Every structure is written in C-alpha cells, then in structure tokens.
Amino acid sequence: MLSEDAPRIVLAGLGPYARTFYYPVLERYHSIGRLTIDAVIEKESQRHVVEHFLKGRSIQPQRVVLVPDDLDHDELSVFLEMEDPLSGESAWGCIVATEPRAHRAYAEWAVRRGMHVLLEKPVTARDLREKGPVEALRLVSDHRCLAELADRYGVTVVVQAQRRVHPAYRMVKEVVGEIVAEFGVPVTYLDIHHADGTWNMPWEFVSRDGHPYKFGYGKLLHSGYHFVDLFCWLSEVNQQAAVPPDRVGLDVFPVAANRLGAQLAEASYERLFGGKRWRHFGGLPRPASLPRQSWGETDVVLLARLMRGSEVVTTAVLSLLQSSLSGRSWLELPADTYKGNGRIRHERVTVNVGPLLAVQAHSYQDGRADGTSPFEVVIYRNRRLVGGEAVTRFTMRSEAGEVAEASDSLNNRAREQILEDFLAADGRRSGIALHGTTVRVVAAAVAGVARSAQGESGRSAVLLDAAAREWYRAE
Ligand SMILES: NC(=O)c1ccc[n+]([C@@H]2O[C@H](COP(=O)([O-])OP(=O)(O)OC[C@H]3O[C@@H](n4cnc5c(N)ncnc54)[C@H](O)[C@@H]3O)[C@@H](O)[C@H]2O)c1
After folding, report:
1. Total-model pTM
2. Ligand 1 neighbour 15 (Cβ under 6 A)
3. How many domains does the chain have?
C-alpha cells in the first residue's frame, strides 16, 4: 500500500549494479509503501537495455528520463540545470549510481534541488587522460564542494561505502579501538588484501564503458575506494593512541591495463581458449594499438605509513587486485558485467596493535554459484596483559533466505543499511563529510599512479587535518 507521503526516489544510473542491487531493493520498499520509485535516469544509448529490464519488473518507475550521451562533466551540469529531467517536480531523494565521472554533476544537481543523496562510491571520478596527476587531485575539490553544498542546502549526502556498517568490520574496529584507547598503543600494522577476479580481455580495455580503464583510472576508482576507505576508517582508532599520527606517507606500485603482456602473453591466451577462437578477436583494438594514451591500473599495491613528525606510527599494505583468481572461462563480454562475468572476491584484513593484539577478518568466495562467503574474524590477545581469551573466533553468515544473492549477502545487507541511513537522512555512519581523509588518500594514490605512468615517482604525503588547504605534497 503506497502512502501519500512515501518519499519519492530518483535512481540516476541503471547499470549492471543498479539493476542487480538498487532496483530490486527499491521495488521491495515500494511494495511495502516505504517509498515511490519516481524516476529512472539513464543515457539515451541505453534505451533498449532500460526498456528490456523494466519490462520484466513488477513495479515501474513513474517516469524514465533519457539524457544525451557524450556530455562531459560541465556539459552534463549545464544540461541538468537547464533541462531539469524532473521538470521542476523535485523528489525527496536521489540515488546516484551512474558511472563515476557523472557522479558530481548528478549529486550537485540533486543537492541544489533540495534532495537528499545516496552517492555510490567513489565519491567522484575524472577523465585522467590529458592531465592525470592534476585531475586526480581535483577529486578533493569535488568532495569539498559537495560536502559544502550539502551543508548549505541542509540535505544529507550518504556515501555507499558499506564496509563501514558491515558487522565483521564493526567488530574489528570496536575490539581494536578498545585496546588502543586503554593502553595508548596504536595500530602498528594493517594489511588489507582485496582481489576481485575481474578479468578483462585485452580489447575490453578499449571498448568497456562500465568500470572503464580507457579514461586513465582503474582499480582504485573501481572497488579500490572501499579498501582505502576501510584503511582510513579503521585507522581513526589511532586518534586515541599516545602518539596520534598527523599524516600519511604513500607509495604506489601499479600495473596498468596496457602493461599486462608479461603476465598473460598471446601464447597463454591461445593455450587457454584455443588458437582459432582467440584469433577470431585478434583484430580488435587493444591498448597496444593506442600507445599514446594512458590506461587505468588493473592492480595496485599501496604502501602507506601513518606518521607523526618523522616517527612511524602505523605501516600499512593495501594490495588491490583485479588480475586475481577468476571464474571467467569465456571470451565474449556478457550483458551483466557485475555478477555475470566470473568475478570472485577474496578479501582479508589483518590488524596488529603492537605486542597486544592481532585481529584477522577473512572472506574468500569459492566461485560456486551457490557458494556462501562467510566472514571469519579471529582475535588473538596477549591475554596476561590485556585480559580476555587468547583466541576468539567468530563466523558471520547472513540468515538463510534473507537475501536472494547468498554468495554476497553480508555485503548486500550492509549496503541496505546504508540505504536505510539515506532514507533516514542520517549521515552519522557514512555521510560525505566523513569521507574527507579517504578522498584525499585516494586522490593522492591515483595521482601517484598517473605520475608513475609518466616515469616519475608515485610517492606523496597527505595531511590528516581535514581543514589543511596544503594537504598534499608529491615526494
Ligand atoms: N558499493 C558497491 O559495492 C558497488 C558495487 C558495484 C558498483 N558500485 C558503483 O555503482 C556505480 C554503478 O556501477 P555499475 O557497475 O553499474 O557501473 P557502470 O558504469 O557499468 O554503469 C553505470 C550506468 O550509468 C550510466 N550512465 C553513465 N553516464 C550517465 C549519465 N551521464 N547519465 C545517466 N546515466 C549515466 C551508464 O549508462 C550505465 O548504465 C559506480 O559508481 C560503481 O562504482 C558500487
């Protein structure tokens, strides 16, 4: 039953992810009267995909708005301002789940019309082909601008960074935070490993519009944002340490999409897929056919040190990989590139609080369609000094049947909690103002990747003080 005052929600972007996650959840909420699906906004070129998808749905949006393709950021902002897709009938809120180069334009448009916003990660992205390092650092002004606008218009912008509400990571932060606060010892070492098994064929780096590499960015502005955010969010406990850090020293080790030849040579592809099938695609353009342009990274390892003056408080390693174990065994790109292309998620986090505590969270999918991926958390304590059990193990699973997509249901449940925060206009867990450090570290890392592609050092230092205008130094 639809209530008269059910909030009207706009969904900007109906790509593979929104079709898998947002639309079904919105339908469910719509059917119990919690909201109305007011509008879906997509690109004109996606007309058939949108029509085909909506044909099979039980609940239809009140309007579908198709905007011209190929507008750059400024043109899109002008278009939204002048042509207003909602024809002056603003909604309560807008979910921004477009390709990230359009995030800022939609978020800004929605905020200026007084809508609350649920903004998918990464906060924004930019075309890095021409001026990679400079454009990467502008991600920070995008963030500041959106946070200031939200304040000015009195609306809430929540960022979909679901690991902030994930029960396993909340437990890790709580256990670690208690020890840091009680004994003043900081997190001394953090190891974050995320492998998503996104295996792109060489020509897909040229052709793909979703999760693209052809605009000069890759893993860091794909799923990498989550893990830089996890690093920054978990590290907040260090503010309770005897010597809290005041900056991050960062180095980057990327592998770009045009530099994969040493890992997967033609002979290996032919052996895997058969020479005849492989050569069928042989004439398609690949990054090697466009040697002058820069390409996003498939893998990147970040070495980070949280520092106070010249002292190291925390050493961190973030290994963010796409060239990892995949279930893909086909050459053609399927329509569903989100769940239908063989991605396998392996995720592991280790946190050490010096000699006092070690915590590990671990979640490895096994690639089976019905495979569950429980999160295991193991806590090891120096119990004679800090008390408690020497070892405690927790296995977290979602309840059977709770979420259709069993293999990733804890993640989905966490996403839904962030959606609930948005519907309550509650930015306390993942409001945009809380993403300042993450955006600065992501921007510095992306700038480092772009600089290292030009043969320069990728090293930098980032101040943790959110108010610092001179927040970045290339080293
Ligand atoms: N939180 C998570 O765990 C998670 C998981 C997957 C994706 N995401 C994020 O969700 C967003 C969408 O992901 P995706 O995999 O569907 O990406 P995608 O790039 O494949 O699809 C996004 C959709 O946006 C549309 N789009 C692009 N520019 C547009 C514009 N100017 N106006 C209207 N529509 C436009 C595209 O046509 C496409 O259908 C991205 O920001 C991605 O980072 C988050």
Report:
1. 0.96
2. yes
3. 2
Q: How far is the CA of 272 from the centre of ligand 1 (A)?
A: 31
CA of 17 to the centre of ligand 1 (A): 7
Task: Name the residue with the closest Cα to ligand 1, atom 26.
Answer: 98
Using an 8 Å Cβ cutoff, are 391 and 379 in contact? Answer: yes
Nearest CA residue ID for atom 24, ligand 1: 98
Q: What is the CATH number of the domain that holds 277?
A: 3.30.360.10
For residue 182, the surrounding DSSP H or E stretch is helix 167-183
Are 97 and 191 in a shared domain? no
Q: Which of 88, 120, 152 is the last residue of a domain?
A: 120
Instruction: Give the HSE-up count for residue 451: Cα atoms under 13 Å, Cβ half-sphere.
Output: 20
* 153 within domain boundaries: no
147 located within any domain: no
Atom in ligand 1 nearest the alpha carbon of residue 101: 28
Same domain as 215, residue 72: no
Question: Do residues 254 and 328 both lie within one domain?
Answer: yes
Same domain, 172 and 270: yes
CA distance 13 to 97: 5
C-alpha distance across the termini of the chain, in Å: 59
Cα 253 to the center of its chain, rounded Å: 19
Q: Is the CB of 102 under 6 A from ligand 1?
A: yes
pLDDT at 337: 83
Q: List pLDDT tens digits, range 173-219.
A: 999 999 999 999 999 999 999 999 999 999 999 998 889 999 999 99
The structure tokens 């290339």 sit at 474
pLDDT of residue 409: 80
Range of 90's domain? 8-120
Q: How far is the CA of 284 from the centre of ligand 1 (A)?
A: 25
Q: How far apart are CA 375 and CA 397, in angstroms?
A: 7
Q: Does 347 share its domain with 217? A: yes
Q: Do 174 and 105 reside in the same domain of the chain?
A: no
Residue ranges in the chain whose pLDDT is less than 70: 1-4, 367-372, 398-408
Note whether 312 and 453 are same-domain residues. Answer: yes
User: What pLDDT shows up at residue 371?
Assistant: 54
Residue 416: both structure tokens together: 């839904």
Has residue 56 been placed in a domain?
yes
CATH code, domain carrying 104: 3.40.50.720
Q: Are 74 and 115 in contact (CB under 8 A)?
A: no
Q: In what order do the strands lie in the sheet with 189-195?
A: 391-396, 375-381, 357-364, 346-353, 189-195, 311-321, 297-308, 247-256, 460-463, 472-474
